[in-house]
Structures are given as C-alpha cells and as structure tokens.
Amino acid sequence: PGEIDWQAHYRLAGIRARMNARSPDQIRAGDAASDGFVNRYVIPVRRNLSERLMSSVSEREARFLNGLILGERNEVPSDLKTDFITVGVMHLLAISGQQVVIVALLIAALLTVLRVPEKPRFFLVACSLAYYVLLTGSSPSVTRAGIMSIVVLGAGIAQRRPDIHNALGIAAAAILLWDPKQLFDPGFLLSFSAVIAIVLLYPLILRATPGLTARFARNRVVDLAWKGAAVSLAAGLGTAPIVAYYFGRVSLVGFLANILIVPLSSVALVLGMLTLGASFVWGWLASVYAAGAEAAAGLTFKLVSFFAGFPHASVDFRISLAVLASLYGLMTLLLVSAARKSWKPFLIGTLVISNIALYWRVLSPPETGVLRVTFLDVGQGDAAFVEFPGGATMLVDGGPKKLSFDAGEQTVVPFLRHAEVQKIDYLVLSHPHGDHLGGLPAVMRAFPVGTVVEGSSAGRSALYKEFVWLADSLQLPRASLFAGDVIGKELPVRVYALAPERGEGEGADNLNERSLVLKIDYGRTSVLFPGDAEDGAETGMVARYGTFLNSDILKAGHHGSRTSSTEEFVSSASPAYTVISAGEGNSFGHPSAAVLERLSRLGSRIDRTDESGAAVYESDGDSWRRIDRSEWR
To answer: What is the DSSP string of 344-412?
Structure first.
C-alpha cells in the first residue's frame, strides 16, 4: 500500500519483462541492432555526443549536462538527483520546452546566417526538432514541446496568428493518438499541466498585481526577474497537486529556487550545446564553451545544495484522487471568476466542495473496533504494521538494510506516510538480525516513537549499535519482554509475549532461538508473530502453551525456513492463514517446500510476499477479512 505500482509503470513504458544478472561476467555484448532509423541514425549519435561531453567537462558536470541536453537522467548521480527532487527542480532533467526552444533558436539563427529562405528554413528547423525529440528519448515533455514549436513556427509560415491553446491541443491529440496510455503517465500530466497553468495563471498573476508589475517594468532586469517569478509561481501551482498525488512530497523552496536555478541552468544548457557544436569544428573553441558550461553547472549544484539544506525544504504531502480533482476544480472556478470579474463562481464552488467534504466525513461510518495488520513486502526480511482499535499502532520489525536497499527508507516509511501515521506507539524488534533490524533506524528518524520493545538478545553489529544509540539519543523508553509479559495493558486487545523464557539461553549465539514471540488476541480472533524462532524454541512453546498457540493468522517463523514451522508447532497454531515474508529468488531457498506442504495439509491459506506483495487483514473481533489489493487505502 502506498508503493508505486511498478507493473503498471512498466506496462505504460511498453516493458514486458525484466531480467537480472547476478554478475557482470554473465553479460556479453553482442552486435548492436542496426535495423530501423533510431538504431542506425539516432543511438550512435547520442552515444557520440555523450562521449564528447564526458571528454570535455568534469565527470559530475558532464553527467548533469547529459541529462540536461540528451535526457540521460540515469547518468545523474543519485545524491544530486535527490537534492533536485527536494528543491523541486527535477524538471530541469526532463527535456522540455526550454531545451526545445533553445535548439530551435540556435538552428534558426545558424540558418539565418547562412541566408536560407524562410520556407526551407522552417522545414529544416522542423526536421531538426523531430530528430532532437528522437535523440532525447521521446519523453512526453519533449514530444509535447517539439510538436508545439513546429505548430507555432508553421503558423508563421502560413501567415496565421499562432494560438498557444491550439498548439497545446494538437500536441496532446498527437501524443494520445499515438499512445493513449500516456494519459496516465505522470510525465505527460506534469508537462501539460505546467504549460496550461502558465498560459492561464501567468496573466492572472500579473493582472492581480498591477502596482508591482507597473513598478518593475521601469527596470528591464527587475521586470524579467518578476515575470520569471510569475511563470515559476504559475507552473508550481499547476503541477503541485499532481506532484503531491503521485510522489507524496511538495517542495516549499521550489518557487524561490526556480527563479534562480532555471536561468542558470539555461546558461549551462546553451554553453553545453555550443560545446558539442564547436567540438566538431574547433577544439579550442569547444574547450572555452566547456569551461563556461562546467562553471555554470557547478554553480547550479551549489545553489541546489544550498536550497536542499533548508530545514523542511520539502514536506510529505499526499492527497487522494478526490482532493486532486477538487483542487483543479477550484483552480478552474478561480479562472472563471477572474474572466467574469466576479468572485461568485469561485465562492459558490468552494462552498459546494467544502459541504461535500464535510458531509462525506460525517456520513462515512468510522472505522472503529477494527484491528488491521499489514505484512509488508520488504524482500528477504520481516516487517508488519499493526493498527489497533482506537488508533494505537505497533511496528513489528523493519526489514533488511543493504548497500543498495534500506527497507525502512524505501518501503516502511513511505507506507507509513501513505497511511497517514502520526506516531508509532510500540516499535518492536523481535531479534537483532539485520533482516529484521535494518529498516528500524530510518523509521525512528522519520516518526515519533512511544516505546521500543525488544526480547532479551543484544546484538553486536554496527547496525544494532546505531539502533541503541538512536533510542538513547531520542530518549525513547526501552522495554525487554519475556514469556508471560503483556504489551500495552491500556489497549483494547491483548498482546502477549510467549518467548523467550527469562534466563533461558541468554548469551547463546543463535539469536533466532531467542526471538521475541508475540500473540495478539482481539475478541475471538488472534494473530501470532514468532519472529525467527526455530524448532527448539517452537518445541518449548508447544510444551508450555499447547492449544493457547491456536491462532487465525500465523506469520511463518524464519521466512518459511525448514528449521522453523515444525509439525507440532503449526498443528498447535492451526492457522487459517499463514503469511510468509521472503525475498523473491532469495539464495536461502525460503520458503521450504516441506513447510509449504505441511501448511497445505492443514488447509491454511498461504500468502507469500515474494509472490503477491503485501498482505493486509482486518478483524472486527469475530472474524478476519483479507483486504484485496483493489481495496487498499
């Protein structure tokens, strides 16, 4: 829940399958495909231009210019990309109108110097723009800008007054006729909403501030800066709802940052293009342009880092589809009111939308008395989020942390933000192995935590030391639980600790056997979290608790390993549902075929996160209901 639907994303991009190679030794470069116009005349040119940039400019700046000129966003370093997202200037790395207009102007200027007549000049510029669209990957934004530029230039040749609305409509119609799926692509929506907002809101902003506009008009530099700010504000207002809906973050410094960074990046863009052009003619001139491009790109980095360092430079802000529609409805009514010079349409529309929102909340039945458990897909690890009746919450483990993947940062925290969680009342660590502990530090940094709950095991890893240091520095209460203890006596449910036994096996090397085992009882329903408890611990619990282990839902111990989920233990638990949290294609062979067969014989329905993603269940105290993906909030 709350995660990008990558299957839908790949389908929109026309990608049917994904293949992973475990080692570079498994990759062999065959002969490059030579059929088709793009493979023969576009890709080699793009590769050549990229190599020229890399040889002319320092690597970091060259990667940025590659993204700016050729649309190679994957070349941009990840830390720089993160800062661009935080500041709200990631659009600079998406080829758009700015780049296309500069290309058109440069080519038109060259053809004018060469005294090419008007109609052949238009034909050559149009062909060059079409080629540039292919050269940069034909993203929705550059395709839209290319088509609009050709339409506007063509209007001049036909001696017709260009109409930006018609040009925008023709571009949208052409893209959607070619690929209707683009209507659901964020890049398409952001590109068109930005232009529509500029066309409609920019004049409104200037008319709303006649005094400032007249005063600034006396100084050309100040006038340009003011109008640039108005354009930035209009584009920001137009795209902010879509950014919030798709990405869940909104930049608070984007308005100011765009005013300074966009002109500077334009300088870097022009100098980068001149560097490429000069590199075919005169190496010394290319080096002069390259020095300027490198300086402009370096200064852009400094400004982006400066704004990214602001406290709360960007904030988490998610909205629903209904809110998205409401915001654009209000913007439309605002434009209607401005056109009619009357605030009545806007005020009436605001009152109608406010009343709908108010009565929807009043008449919607509140979700009281519901226990909700979400078993998250964190790869080869464990993480489950529990929402108790009344609003209290508990996170059981946080998934793994590796060099390229932090489950806390990349899965758990985005999910919690999507679920609009304000506080984690109980943060539980079953045992200090990295696949359970790894994501918890990121969660602790992102959310207020009430109490940290652990078993008796203390880890020796640097990750566990970071976990302890964070808990101490944040002054979080810590509690060690043993068999017989209860969590949260004030809760409307019972959360029992079933293991480990106090003093039993302390200091043992096998941390799995010292896992904190929890059982949650709510009315006549229950769920069992055995951590990574193995056969020894399971045998002890069967002997101590017998039928008390009986649970409707079992989170399979140790990711379905053959060392856990023994015949006696799963028979005592007798779960109607079993959730196995394991990573797709993991090297451990989890879950074990023997465990799967054992659970199937019991008639337990098996949910595997490696096959079907997260598993969500709700209980009203009488029975459990599995929440299908279509119902995820």
So the answer is: HHHHHHHHHHHHHHHHHHHHSPP--S-EEEEE---SSS--EEEE-TTS-EEEE----B-SS-BHIIIII
pLDDT digits 0-9 by tens, 61-111: 888 888 888 877 666 677 777 788 788 877 776 666 777 888 888 888 888
Torsion, CA 306, CA 312, CA 316, CA 319, rounded to 10:
-100
Residues in the chain: 633
Q: Token match 């399958």: residue?
A: 17
**Rounded distance between C-alpha atoms, residue 498 and residue 513, angstroms:** 12
d(CA 601, CA 603): 5
- Cis ω before 44 (30° cut-off from 0): no
DSSP annotation of 311 reads: T
β-pair type (424-429, 371-375): unpaired
Tokens of 169: 């409509």
User: Pick from 268, 148, 253: which is nearest to 198 by CA?
Assistant: 148
Using an 8 Å Cβ cutoff, are 609 and 411 in contact?
no
584 CB contacts (<8 Å, ≥6 apart)? Answer: 379, 610, 611
User: Quick one: tokens of 495?
Assistant: 């959360």
DSSP 3-state assignment of 424? strand
Count the Cβ atoms, other than its own, within 10 Å of residue 611.
Answer: 11
> Strand 314-316 to strand 249-251: parallel, antiparallel, or no bridges (unpaired)?
antiparallel
Within 10 angstroms of residue 356's Cβ, the number of other Cβ atoms is 12
Task: Render 579-612 in DSSP notation, one character per residue.
Answer: EE---TT-TT-PSPHHHHHHHHHHT-EEEEHHHH
pLDDT tens string 37-70: 888 889 889 999 999 999 999 988 888 888 888 8
